[in-house]
Design brief:
Number of strands of chain A: 1
Largest interface: A-B, 27 and 41 residues
Largest sheet of chain A: none
Number of helices of chain B: 3
Helix content of chain B: 10-25%
Helix content of chain A: 25-40%
Oligomer: heterodimer
Shape of chain B: globular
Strand order of the largest sheet of chain B: 3-2-4-6-5
Radius of gyration of chain B: 16 Å
Shape of chain A: globular
Structural class of chain B: alpha/beta
Chain lengths: ~110, ~190
């Protein structure tokens, strides 16, 4: 499977998140060793509540699916709830360290539960 | 576009002037001082072209509103850098002014002379971080400067409509700015 963005990155260099490629195609119910590291990434950028690292499991659970969906929406990706090629490519791309957990602009539509 | 929680902005009388300065210690030396200053000057001028905010370089780093530095790893603000690629830079919301770039990156001012496959365009990242300094958070519009990621050897320096509308909502418009000056497509990619 080809990850287009990766073809320009030399794998010998220290690309912090390159190992997340192994989670490609994971979806709800998957259990992949090391997925807790990916959950830390999602915590780091504001998509999962901060909890003790020891409580992060390697299971793709409901909370993580919700985080992936929010990530896909925020980053303008197709919303699949899975770690598809575009999503993984985006996750491993170099980025700004500022969290994505920001306030929505006032004019933007949002949904409230009533 | 999006804002930080509470929509913080620099609260000065308009037109406001913000000063910036480079850390005398935490700096990179493989980019010349003149190139470095020119990059920041161009990046600041893009934002000041659309809002009534001027940026001027100050000599006194500690007294400047915006404090710029290149740092390795854990540099004391709780947001450690991570080496080559990964996190490239970060900046703080108004009116903090801290502007940090990862010294481990191969920062490029010209992809013609910098051939590294992991070279990152300094001007693109600087332009993005200035958006944070002004109060913009990340955008979901891929073409916008405020989109959070940037691939190596990619240049994205021109503000898009989403960036302009966001920052003008915070500061108002520069009276000389015309929306017609925005390009339909202003993202260029250079793969060496």
């Amino acid at each position: 499977r080809t990850l287009p963005e990766l073809t320009v990155v030399d794998s010998r260099n220290n690309n912090t998140w390159r190992h997340f490629v192994k989670f490609l195609d994971a979806g709800k119910g998957s259990h992949v060793t090391g997925m807790s590291e990916l959950k830390k990434y999602f915590q780091r950028f504001g998509y999962l509540d901060t909890v003790p690292e020891t409580s992060l499991t390697d299971t793709f659970d409901d909370r993580f699916e919700s985080a992936v969906i929010t990530y896909q929406k925020n980053l303008g990706l197709a919303v699949t709830g899975k770690l598809d090629t575009d999503t993984v490519t985006q996750i491993i791309s170099p980025r700004c360290g500022v969290s994505d957990d920001a306030a929505p602009a006032p004019h933007k539509l949002h949904v409230s539960r009533h | 576009y999006a804002y930080f929680h509470g929509q913080p902005r620099w609260a000065r009388s308009s037109p406001m002037t913000l000063t910036y300065a480079f850390s005398p210690v935490n700096i990179i030396h493989y980019v010349s001082q003149s190139d470095l200053k020119a990059v920041f000057e161009r990046a600041f001028s893009r934002w000041s072209a659309v809002i009534p905010v001027n940026f001027t370089e100050a000599n006194n780093y500690w007294a400047a509103d915006i404090k710029i530095g290149f740092y390795h790893g854990d540099h004391g603000d709780g947001e450690a850098f991570d080496g080559v690629l990964g996190i490239l830079a970060h900046a703080f919301s108004p009116e903090n002014g801290r502007f940090h770039l990862d010294a481990a990156e191969t920062w490029a001012v010209d992809f013609g002379s910098e051939k590294s496959k992991v070279a990152v365009d300094l001007e693109s990242v600087v332009t993005h971080e200035i958006g944070h300094i002004l109060g913009l958070a990340h955008s979901s519009v891929k073409q916008a400067v405020m989109y959070p990621s940037l691939s190596p050897r990619t240049k994205k320096v021109d503000l898009r409509l989403d960036d302009v509308e966001g920052v003008q909502s915070l500061y108002g418009s520069n009276p000389n700015f015309k929306f017609s000056s925005l390009l339909a497509s202003d993202t260029s990619i250079s793969v060496g």
